[in-house]
Design brief:
globular
């Protein structure tokens, strides 16, 4: 004879098994590739897509193509064989895509540069990764509305001549 189960117990089998029949969709985490298709207007990703006339679905691959060092671009197919080789780069591209100001962008650069997965001979020495300088040029163009990258603004110049000497 089997003992009868108490229906009021909190530890019943149905409470322990997750409900897989639910049709509700779960929200996508912001760092997933699917989330990049839903970027707000003022973000780097939205501006990049508008500037280069591409859809959000092509954002990540296009940014990678434009910012990888040339050697990495040529070896991309071979490097992709190694599982998750470009994961730090793709995370960086997604993070930059959410940026709305250069301050946000610079924080993403620091996170990328100091990411432990972004170290090693292939990535650090051979440059088989994204060029932050190339990414910075694009970000300055899109987030600063065309401010020159290599030339500091007059107010940021290391030295400035007094007005009386400038004449």
């Amino acid at each position: 004879m089997l003992p009868q189960e108490n229906s009021s117990s909190a530890g019943s089998f149905s409470n322990l098994v997750p409900d897989t029949t639910s049709t509700e969709s779960k929200p996508t985490p912001p760092s997933s590739p699917a989330a990049i298709t839903q970027m707000p207007r003022g973000t780097f990703a939205a501006k990049f897509c508008a500037h280069y006339h591409i859809t959000m679905e092509h954002y990540e691959d296009t940014v990678l193509e434009r910012t990888l060092y040339p050697v990495a671009r040529h070896l991309q197919t071979f490097l992709a064989v190694r599982a998750n080789y470009f994961a730090p780069d793709r995370d960086f591209v997604r993070g930059v895509g959410r940026s709305t100001r250069m301050r946000d962008f610079e924080q993403e650069v620091q996170d990328y540069v100091h990411d432990p997965a972004n170290r090693g001979f292939l990535r650090k020495t051979l440059g088989l990764r994204i060029s932050t300088r190339r990414m910075r040029r694009i970000a300055h163009e899109l987030l600063d509305h065309g401010a020159p990258v290599d030339q500091p603004e007059l107010s940021q110049a290391p030295f400035a001549l007094p007005q009386s000497r400038a004449q």
